[in-house]
Write a structure and sequence with these properties.
This protein is an alpha/beta fold. It is built from four helices and five strands. The protein has a five-stranded mixed sheet, with helices on both faces. Strand 3, helix 3 and strand 4 form a beta-alpha-beta unit. Helix 3 packs parallel to helix 4. The longest helix has 13 residues.
């Protein structure tokens, strides 16, 4: 009798994998971010990626990063975290964990706190020196939200669509 397979992915790797897979839906030419919200009993209760609001054409609004603010993507893009929260089919996210590829900005931190999400697991904190990220961390910590950088020995999870 052979034993169980030992090289399976962890729960954290699984849920972060869903977040990263969701980011592949983003049409942003520079930054693709995905998010996955998980209930305390390990059920996925929300997914999202960065993109324009429903009904706003991603062919008509700008994707630029520089120039006059109104002519950049920033006034229009909904971040992955906010989309995951808004896309959730459940009435309460209290006690949930948010998995996200990029540490949340200050605006997303407000939504995370207001919905009662209690933990944020992230891959990258590349904007940690910005005021937005500093403010985000101050608010999240003040609200008692646990912050965890996902440390894993894996560099990739390969999906085979020909299985």
């Amino acid at each position: 009798m052979s034993g169980k397979r030992m090289d399976h992915i962890t729960w954290d790797e699984y849920f972060m994998g869903i977040a990263v897979l969701s980011s592949l839906r983003s049409k942003d030419p520079n930054t693709q971010v995905g998010a996955c919200i998980v209930s305390p009993d390990k059920k996925i209760i929300g997914v999202g990626y960065n993109g324009f609001p429903t009904g706003c054409s991603d062919d008509e609004l700008p994707w630029e990063r520089e120039g006059e603010w109104i002519n950049t993507k920033y006034p229009y893009v909904c971040h992955a975290e906010l989309n995951a929260i808004l896309n959730s089919p459940v009435s309460s996210l209290r006690g949930a964990t948010l998995y996200v590829a990029l540490f949340p900005c200050n605006e997303c931190a407000k939504a995370i706190i207001q919905t009662g999400i209690k933990k944020v697991v992230y891959l990258s904190d590349k904007y940690e020196s910005t005021d937005q990220t500093k403010a985000s961390k101050m608010m999240l910590r003040a609200a008692g939200v646990e912050l965890e950088k996902l440390e894993t020995g894996r560099k990739e999870i390969i999906l085979n669509l020909n299985a």
